[in-house]
Amino acid sequence: MKQPHLLFFGLVSLFACNDASGPPDTSNREHWMTLSAGVYHSCGITADGSAFCWGLNPSGALGYGDATVASVRPVRVLTDLRFTSISVGGAFSCGLTTANRAYCWGAGYGGALGDGKNTSSATPVAVADDHVFTQISVGFEHICALTPAGEAYCWGDNLSKELGDGTNVQRSIPTHVVSNIAFKSISAGNLQTCALSIQGKAFCWGGSSYGEAGVACDTVPCAWPTPQPVSGDLTFVAISAGNTFTCAVSTSSEAWCWGGLDLPWSDGMGRLGVLGDGSSRGSAIPIRVAGNHRFTEVVAGTRSACGVTEGNEGYCWGVNSSGELGIGTVDDNGHPNPTRLGREITWSQITAGDSSCGLDQQGVAYCWAMVYGEPDASGGIRIQGLWTSPTLLPDPVK
Question: What is the pLDDT of residues 167-195, one digit of tens each?
Answer without folding.
Answer: 999 999 999 999 999 999 999 999 999 99
